[in-house]
Design goal:
It is a single chain. The protein has helices at residues 28-35, 69-86, 118-135, 165-170; strands at residues 2-4, 17-22, 42-49, 53-54, 57-58, 62-67, 93-98, 100-103, 107-115, 138-144, 147-150. It has one domain (14-170): Aldehyde Oxidoreductase, domain 3, CATH 3.90.1170.40. The strands form three sheets. A five-stranded mixed beta sheet has the order 1-2-7-9-3, with helices on both faces. α2 (69-86) runs antiparallel to α3. The chain is built from four helices and eleven strands. The protein starts with a strand and ends in a 5-residue tail after the last helix. The longest helix has 18 residues, at 69-86. By secondary structure, the protein is an alpha+beta fold.
């Protein structure tokens, strides 16, 4: 059972997937603790944070994330489903993305994956973040010392595939 918390982050999901996109600060510690299961010996947590620079844009002071909301949760669901298809032994999967205004060092995205073994947890977590970046319609606007504009790593949104063939080739691993 997939849980969608797009209004509030006040309650932990009861199912195996935690999917969220919204303005609330992301609960990193809670998501990591939620992913721990007796049959899973590995939990991998990835946090993307707002950094103070981008290519050719020193002095970034904040980001503003916008999304095509009607497609965000279905696409997060597709990423979680593809991860489970590629790694059937996964325990829990959390895919959480912040929207709205974020200052430097704030967490913008969280991926948490639990699995019986570390190799599967690391591989699935990498697949998830790359697939989220490639397939979920969320865009960032950067504001820096010299101006404000859309992020330079923009690309066409692609459909996610098991093991991320399309997503991995479309994702920009440097951002």
């Amino acid at each position: 059972m997939r849980q969608h918390y797009h209004e509030t982050m006040t309650q932990l999901p009861e199912g195996a997937d935690w999917l969220y996109a919204g303005d609330d600060p992301l609960p990193v510690a809670e998501a990591s603790a939620w992913a721990v299961l007796p049959g899973c010996g590995a939990v991998v947590t990835f946090c993307g944070t707002v950094r103070d620079h981008a290519d050719g844009r020193p002095g970034v002071v904040h980001l503003d994330y916008e999304a095509y909301l009607e497609q965000v949760l279905p696409r997060l669901e597709a990423v979680a489903g593809a991860a489970r298809s590629g790694w059937p032994e996964l325990g829990r999967v959390a895919l959480l993305h912040r929207l709205g205004h974020l200052e430097v060092t704030e967490v913008s995205v969280v991926v948490v994956v639990s699995a019986p073994h570390r190799a599967e947890a690391f591989d699935a977590a990498r697949f998830c973040i790359d697939s989220v970046k490639a397939s979920v319609p969320i865009w960032k606007r950067e504001t820096w010392e010299g101006g404000s504009d859309w992020g330079l790593c923009a690309h066409d949104v692609v459909d996610v595939t098991p093991h991320g063939d399309a997503a991995l080739s479309a994702a920009d691993p440097s951002s």
